[in-house]
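Recall the central idea of this unit: under ordinary conditions, the amino acid sequence of a chain determines the structure it adopts. In this exercise we apply that idea directly, starting from the sequence alone.
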Amino acid sequence: MTSDKLRVGDEVRFRLAGRIVVGKVREDRGPIGVGGRRLYLIAYEMGKGNPYTIEIPRDEIEVVEPRRERA
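Accordingly, the structure predicted from this sequence is:
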C-alpha cells in the first residue's frame, strides 16, 4: 500500500471486518484525515444490490491491477 494519489474510477481493495472488499474510488476527499491523511470515498457492494460507501485513508487501500486479456 502506497501513498500515491488515486484517480476517480480506480478499482481498489481494502480490508473491512477482516474481509477483503473490492470497490471503486468515487471521490478524493483530500487531506482531511487524522494527521492530514488523504481520504477517499469508496463505493462497494456487499452482495448483489446492496451498495455502500466508505471513507478510507490512502494507506489502507490497494489498487487492483486491470486483468490482461490473453492473446
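The two ends are 30 Å apart (CA to CA).
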